[in-house]
Design brief:
Number of strands: 11
Number of helices: 11
Helix content: 40-55%
Structural class: alpha/beta
CATH class of the largest domain: Alpha Beta
Strand order of the largest sheet: 4-3-6-1-2-5
Largest sheet: 6 strands, antiparallel
Shape: globular
Radius of gyration: 22 Å
Strand content: 15-25%
Bound molecules: flavin-adenine dinucleotide
CATH architecture of the largest domain: 3-Layer(aba) Sandwich
Mean pLDDT: 93
Distance between the termini: 26 Å
Order of helices and strands: HHHHHHEEEEEHEEHEHEEHEH
Low-confidence stretches: none
Number of domains: 3
């Protein structure tokens, strides 16, 4: 896409997002046009559309931001296209989506904003998006979705569970990627989760799930999952993972954001790694670092791995009465503070590949700290953040 078209798409999108209630109204208009044009597409979405509307804007915003990084964007769209096969979408549905989107923008923007140039820039963008998604979906040879049976579900601290499932067919994901998951208690409400283990031929996938208060799906995932339940899982997505180069790695995780790093560390062990890996594992309370004992056993066996525990609060909340585990002799003790501040107190990490995973506010505040310390945050890799998928 040429740079003028990209700038028209960005400026028109920004002006819509900036309007009070703009995104919500536009999303409502879009979905009513889509469901009128193609009634069967209503079946792809949950009964309550509020979260879906937010997700639509996050996804468009992500693509609009990445329009000039074409390789990364095309790869992301290809992954999204493969994932969308779980709905049974056809090429015709992609046309219906593009036409409804254009119509919604035009109705919403009015003649002043929706000029012929803006119209053609958006049509061009949407056809690039559809072509990338349908091309990858049609070329994919794996299943449209995987069925997985729960073989273990255990609470590790209040509001956090580790769930292990047996996949019905092998899935080839890269450690660090995420997948969309649907549970029987919340039909059609897909949520992203990151496998915490790499592919090892066993067909077992492990998820670490935090209950978001007031959330639709994470509470039943954490509190109602039982052995024998079946979950449906979509194709892997995401650009996090082990880089092809041999640089040392800096991983910064908060809470269940540990999962994609845990998968990468286990994969490094499988590959006989020797490069240095520093993992800053953070949470609000000391007890949020539920997987520390396991990580310490890995670090005891593999001297290239250093785990630095960090918590914002110095002690546990009243409801957590188990004693705090002690690090093995010579290992870094837990540090109290904001993880970004702690990471930068170690230096600016020259020559490191940096990845960052956590909720939206943790990712933003950590990036702010890294930037202030002189680290180029454009090189820091992170997924679309947890809170705003
Ligand atoms: C790439 C990616 C990977 C993810 N991997 C994992 C994982 O491995 N483990 C895991 O537990 N979760 C993970 N998530 C988050 C997960 O997909 C859900 O967003 C989360 O479980 C909340 O779903 P919900 O249906 O309960 O809440 P929703 O009903 O979707 O949301 C309810 C409200 O809570 C807010 N909210 C949603 N998530 C958060 C959050 N994390 N922190 C604060 N507020 C939030 C929403 O903005 C909304 O206002 C991942 C998200 C993304 C984007």
């Amino acid at each position: 896409m040429d740079s003028q078209a990209i700038s028209l798409v960005r400026s028109s999108f920004k002006s819509i997002v900036a309007e009070e209630g703009g995104p919500e109204q536009l999303a409502r208009t879009f979905y009513s046009l889509l469901f009128a044009r193609s009634p069967e597409t209503r079946e792809f979405f949950p009964a309550a559309m509020d979260v879906q509307r937010d997700r639509l804007f996050t996804a468009i915003g992500y693509v609009v931001d990445s329009l000039d990084e074409s390789d990364e964007m095309l790869e992301y769209l290809a992954q999204l296209g493969r994932d969308h096969r779980k709905y049974g979408v056809t090429d015709e549905h992609y046309n219906d989506v593009a036409n409804s989107m254009i119509e919604a923008f035009e109705m919403f923007g009015g003649a002043e904003m929706w000029t012929d140039e803006v119209d053609s820039a958006w049509r061009n963008t949407l056809s690039v998006i559809s072509a990338a998604m349908t091309g990858a979906a049609n070329a994919a040879d794996g299943p449209r979705a995987w069925t997985a049976t729960v073989v273990e579900s255990r609470a590790v601290i209040k509001g956090v569970a580790i769930v292990r499932l047996q996949l019905d067919q092998p899935m080839d994901y890269r450690p660090g990627q995420y997948v969309s998951v649907q549970v029987a208690a919340r039909p059609r409400m897909w949520r992203y989760l990151s496998p915490a283990n790499p592919v090892d031929g066993s067909g077992i996938v492990e998820f670490h799930i935090r209950q978001v208060s007031g959330g639709w799906v994470s509470p039943p995932m954490v509190n109602q999952t039982a052995v024998g339940d079946t979950w449906v899982i979509g194709s892997p997505i995401g650009a996090l993972g082990l880089p092809d180069n041999i640089r040392d790695l800096l991983m910064i995780a908060s809470g269940t954001g540990l999962a994609p790093f845990r998968a990468q560390i286990l994969e490094l062990i499988r590959r006989g790694n020797t490069r240095r890996v520093h993992l800053f594992y953070s949470g609000q309370y000391p007890c949020d670092l539920y997987d520390l004992p396991f990580l310490w056993t890995l670090a005891e066996k593999h001297s290239w791995l250093t785990v630095i525990p960090v918590s914002e609060e110095g002690s546990n909340p009243w409801w957590h009465t188990n004693p705090e585990p002690l690090p093995p002799l010579g290992f870094p003790e837990r540090i109290t503070g904001k993880v970004g501040k702690v990471v930068t107190s170690y230096g600016t990490w020259p020559g490191h590949d940096i990845q960052l995973v956590g909720n939206e506010s943790m990712v933003n505040s950590t990036k702010f700290r890294l930037r202030a310390a002189g680290i180029d945050v454009a090189t820091v890799r992170s997924d679309p953040t947890y809170g705003v998928q």
